[in-house]
Every structure is written in C-alpha cells, then in structure tokens.
Amino acid sequence: MKAVVFKGPFDVAVENVPDPTLEQPNDAIIRITTSNICGSDLHPYEGRAPLDHGMVLGHENMGVVEDVGPGVDRIDVGDRVSVPFNISCGTCRNCTAGWTNACLRANPTGRPTAGYGYPMMGPYWGGQAEYLRVPWADFNLLKLPAGREHENAFTMLSDIFPTGYHGAELARVAPGDTVAVYGAGPVGLMAAHSAMIRGASQVFIVDKEPDRLELAERYGVTAVNFADTDPTEVITDATDGTGVDCGIEAVGYQAHDATGQEHPELVMDKLVEVVQSTGRIGVVGVYLPQDPGAATEGAQQGRIGFDYGSVFDKNIQLGHGQCPVKRYNRQLRDLIIRGRAQPELIVSHELSLDEAPQAYDQFDKRVDGWTKVLLHPAA
Ligand SMILES: NC(=O)c1ccc[n+]([C@@H]2O[C@H](COP(=O)([O-])OP(=O)(O)OC[C@H]3O[C@@H](n4cnc5c(N)ncnc54)[C@H](O)[C@@H]3O)[C@@H](O)[C@H]2O)c1
Ligand SMILES: [Zn+2]
Ligand SMILES: [Zn+2]
C-alpha cells in the first residue's frame, strides 16, 4: 500500500510499504477514507520528539472496516468507523476507569499510553496510508452512519474535537462562564467551539495568526491578536475587570512571543494572570518531560517555570493531559449528526496522499490559510 513515511526531520515521503495484516484475533483492518495532519505531527517532523525513521505517520483516522479477526464481534466488515488516536486494551486499571489515554497494556515499552504513528506511543503504524491495523477493535472503534455524509466533521472525532472538548471539561466550563483559550490552532478552535456548546457566555481566543483568528469568529468567539495587544488587558477590560472563569491552554511547549522566540512558560503565565481567583485552567497543549531542543535549560528537563505561586494564591484549579477520546467521541458524533456542532468549519485543504510532503511543509511553516489538512488516500 501507499503510505506517508517519516524519513527524518523535515523529510516525509510517500512510499510503498507492506499492507497491514491481522496480527491478533481482536484486530481489524480499516480502509482509510480520511486521515488528518495534526499539530502534534509537527513535533517529530521538526525533530522535537524522537520518531523511528520508517514509521508511517497519522493518528487522526477514519474509514471503512475491510477485515476483522475471529475475536471481533461488535464491529463488522463494511462498517464506517472513527479510530480514536489512543490505543487502549479496554481491560486494564486505567482503561476500566475511562482513562483510555493511559492504557497500561497497549505500549510494549510499558509507558502508560499508546497511539498510531507517534513518538514513544508504541510500534503501531499510522493511518496516513491506504490501510490501518486497529488493535482491540471492538473496544476502540466508534461506529458512524454509513456513506460519505459529514466526512469532514466526523474526521475530527479521532483527536482534535474530543481534545478541545477535554480542555473545556478540565476547565469545567459551565453555562454562563467566561473563557479564555490560548492558541487558535485546530485544537484551540475546537476548545472554543466546545466551550460555546457547553453554554459559555463569552469565549476569547488568543493567537497571532490572523487567518486562524478569523476562523474563530465563525464559532461566535472573540478573537484577540497578541501581536498587537496585551491579551490580559483586553480580556480583563471586557470582563468588568475580573478576568475569566476558565482558561484553556492549546499551545504547548513551543509557545512563542510575537517575534517567534520560544518561551515555554509564557502561555501558562498569561493564563494564570487572566483567570480570576477560584477559576480553573485546562491544559491540552503538550508539555514534555524531555526536550533537548527547548529554549531554556530547565525546559530541556521538563521544568516549566511558570507562576505556580499565583496559582496557589488565587486558588486556581489545574487539570491537564492527553485526551481520553472514547470518553467524548460518541456524544460529539451525535452533536454533529443533529446539527449542533460544526467542527468541519476549520478544514482548509483536502489532498491526496501524494500531496502530503508539500502539506507538511506548508502546515509546519504556518503558511497563511493552512489550518487543517485532510488526506484522502483513495483520491
Ligand atoms: N492533549 C492531547 O491529547 C492533545 C491532542 C492533540 C494535540 N495536542 C496538542 O495541542 C497543541 C495544539 O495543537 P494544534 O494542532 O492546534 O497545533 P498548532 O501548532 O496548529 O497550533 C498552535 C497555535 O498556538 C499559537 N501560539 C503559539 N504561541 C502562542 C502564544 N504565546 N499565545 C497564543 N497562541 C500561541 C500558534 O500561533 C498556533 O496557531 C499542541 O501542543 C498539540 O500537540 C494535544
Ligand atoms: Zn492529532
Ligand atoms: Zn488498557
């Protein structure tokens, strides 16, 4: 089959690789109809997270079931499915508690998390390819209505829509709350959309990329450009001087200032400033225990020096981590089907697999207009 293969930093290629096969009785093989490029794919792409050369990329996958092992009985050949980016066994301590992001059995290294085509998440190939092997298929796959309807919305169910929603859940966004989201990439936009769905009275989103901030307005969200203003001032003024109830971090460890200089603590500091006392902050942007390329010596060892003193002093609650996709994907699917959620509004490009190398390059450079790239392997 054809697949997008990681060759090394800033180098991906479309190559022929062996088709995946059923390796375990609980496996399924999916024929991929859509696989997205994610901001998280840029971490290995930029050499900022170690990935084996030869790995097939892609953790945001959906398609049609092509084959199932003898142990699979809930999922049938021909079902249209969404594949959560977390791979989970369904029976370990963390999976049974709903924390499918921290499965204790799926990653052979023993690290409590597994996923497709991603650094340190196990040997599983990704779905930027014609086919994908899915372990524990009965547990992991979410069924979708047959056909092609809502394809561009459903494709957000494998990662970024649940991840954005998880940010809102960690920040416990409730009706009437005011919310500040940092980062207007796909995850931040989905967090803002989720906060609106949960009944926030006003949502602000902060970034410096005008094309992304413009998209935020489609979701009824107030855009704040940190290149021309101090977001704390703007948001505090707009909330009668109090600041917001909830903050959502959707930037991660490569947070930078308007000149592009990285400051890994910058966004956490800004959120602690703008969230009012007894408020909540949900962090879904990724931070790493090791990052040899980090801007500060501390951050190279995962030590992010933000204002924890004020977090304590203001009684702000913090939540963070990888999203357990299965906790939300069924409910978010039904919001899409019934017309209450429109995650597809952020799609900027629909391309064939062959166009992936150029897409990685443009998306990585944040070229104007490259917000969310969908690859259609059958195109
Ligand atoms: N927790 C999870 O399960 C999970 C899942 C998917 C993605 N993620 C992470 O979420 C983060 C966002 O993902 P994405 O796909 O939207 O990435 P992205 O890189 O497309 O978007 C990040 C945005 O942050 C903006 N930004 C940078 N510095 C900023 C600052 N100081 N203030 C405000 N905005 C700033 C950038 O301009 C960019 O638009 C990444 O760290 C990604 O790895 C986490
Ligand atoms: Zn992703
Ligand atoms: Zn498990």
Automatic annotation (TrEMBL):
Residues annotated as domain Alcohol dehydrogenase-like N-terminal: 24-145
Organism: Pseudonocardia parietis
Residue ranges constituting the Alcohol dehydrogenase-like C-terminal domain according to the UniProt record: 186-289
Database matches in PROSITE patterns: ADH_ZINC (PS00059)
Keywords: Metal-binding, NAD, Oxidoreductase, Zinc
A GO term, aspect molecular function: formaldehyde dehydrogenase (NAD+) activity
Top-tier EC class: oxidoreductase
Cofactors, names only: Zn(2+)
Name this polypeptide is given: Glutathione-independent formaldehyde dehydrogenase
